[in-house]
Amino acid sequence: MVHCDDDDLAVIALGEPASREIEEHLQACALCRSSLDQWVAVVSSARSITPDDHLVAPPPSVWEGIRDELEPRATVTSLDDARRSRRPVGWLLAAAAGVGLVLGSVATFGLVTSSTAPSPSIVAQGGLDSMDGVAVAGTAAVEEDETGRHLHVTVPDLPPVEDGYYEVWMATADASTMVAVGTLGPSGDSILTLPAGMNVADFPLVDVSVEHFDGNPGHSAQSVVRGLLAT
Amino acid sequence: MATAAASVHLVPMNVESDISDDSAVARRFQAGDDTALEAAYQRWSALVYTSAIRAVGNEADAADITQAVFVSAWQSRSGFDAAKGSLPGWLMTLTRRRIADHWRDRARHVRRVEAAAQVEPDEPEEIAADSVIDRVVLADELERLGDPQRRIVELAFFQDLTHTQIASLLNLPVGTVKSHIRRSLERLRRRLEVDGGAL
Fold it and tell me: Do A182 and B181 touch (CB under 8 A)?
């Protein structure tokens, strides 16, 4: 059986008359009838659109509410997420290669209570290893004073980044979850305020990566140094 | 000092770094990329919100539904498979669920009130959510049609011109107009199949 031409059915769905030939075919053919019925339903629904059906954006408070509800999660990015297609080999692989790392060997931090201690007190510290060698290339320490906790990162002799910068991350020991804590400037020495409420013990791995001004807040998978902090 | 938390949220709403199309957003969303949440919100929050307004009848409840839809979409993104369905389709599934919840809660409330007043329960006037969502989805898809399809569809749907009248008005071959109409209808039908109420 020769079925109806879809172009003919489309204008029939809009209400134009069908030829006798098409009419007869439609009576005999459930397949063509079904195509026509579906388009008739679309047309009838579309023709009942009222001005109220046109899209309006929600008020800004809705996005703010979503952000507030998700904030603790949204700042943590899972490394499983291999986010950048241009650099498919995630730095997780580099971590697995074990450049100077013994994952899992660091237990949780003992949380130092330092309300009366002279400031700043060191909560945890460690060396940062170059990602292409085993020599210690820098240091990192979590310090605490009356204003809160800070990560003090020192990595001397870092080359300038063309069209980019260095970002400092803290990650779980298995490198599955990470938080960006700030940038490392040209001096190679930065004291970064850690987010209040961040449990430092959960993020003992410090990483410095090359980032570009590309609007992507995720890790670039280009790490330059990394190391575990110990109490 | 800028932290990641700050940088994530300082990304302007109109920045689309490597977002090329809807499916790229969907894949990044599934992968847990939080910039994809914002991109998804930019693209589809109006669809969700407008559907909710039309289905529940007021803006305040629609705003709550929209917020709940995006929060639960993000939190349960492991249940979304970009290979199997579209992200707006999934968001609309969540929207319909929230709308149904809204009416169920409302019905419960009304029954309680009426039980207290010792009158026969009277179901609240539930708006036929599926058909209003269909209209919102179609209005959205019509907006997305490029010319000349959009112009042709407007003339055919809303000015009731025949395809031959449209062809002479726009100075296009009759066959071209017919196939534009067919392609547009098919596109609208597919969009309804994915995102519409009548699944």
Answer: no
Same domain, A150 and A188: yes
CATH topology classification for B21-127: Rna Polymerase Sigma Factor; Chain: A (1.10.1740)
| Residues B111, A188: Cα–Cα separation, whole Å | 67
* Residue B51: both structure tokens together: 């559907």
- The mean pLDDT values, 10 residues at a time, for chain A of 231 residues are 87 92 91 92 91 89 90 45 34 39 35 44 85 71 86 86 86 82 86 85 88 80 84 78
Q: What is the ipTM of this complex?
A: 0.74
Instruction: Report the CATH number at residue A184.
Output: 2.60.40
Does residue B130 sit in helix, strand or coil? Answer: helix
Domain identity same for A114 and A160: yes
Residue A60 within any structural domain of the chain: no
- Per the CB < 8 A criterion, the answer to whether B126 and B64 are in contact is no
Provide the β-strand partners of residue B183. Answer: none
Confirm whether A64 is domain-assigned: no
Q: Do residues B139 and A56 touch, judged by C-beta distance below 8 A?
A: no
Give strand pairing partners of A179: A170
Per the DSSP assignment, residues forming a β-bridge with A139 are A127, A154
pLDDT above 70 coverage of chain B, percent: 78
Looking at CA atoms only, how far is residue A82 from chain B in angstroms?
Answer: 8
| 8 Å CB contact of B179 and A7 | yes
Residues A126 and A216 in one domain: yes
Domain boundaries, position A158: 79-228
> Does position B120 have pLDDT exceeding 80, yes or no?
no
* Of the partner residues B37, B67, B163, the one whose CB lies closest to the CB of residue A62: B67
Residue owning tokens 């969502």: B133
Count of domains for chain A:
2
User: B106 CA to chain A: closest CA distance, Å?
Assistant: 22
**Cβ separation of B158 and A47 shorter than 8 Å?**
yes
Q: Looking at the complex, does the CB of residue B67 fall below 8 Å from at least one CB of chain A?
A: yes
- Return residue ranges of chain B for CATH 1.10.10.10: 128-199
- Tokens (6 digits) for A193: 């305020």
Do residues A124 and A191 share a domain? Answer: yes
- CATH code for B128-199? 1.10.10.10
pLDDT tens-digit map of A84-117? 333 333 333 444 443 333 333 333 333 333 344 4
A138 and A48, same structural domain?
Answer: no
Nearest chain A alpha carbon to B189: A42
- B70 contact residues in A (CB cutoff 8 A): 66
CB contact under 8 A, B31 and A82: yes
Size of interface A-B (CB pairs under 8 A): 177
* Amino acid present at B138: L
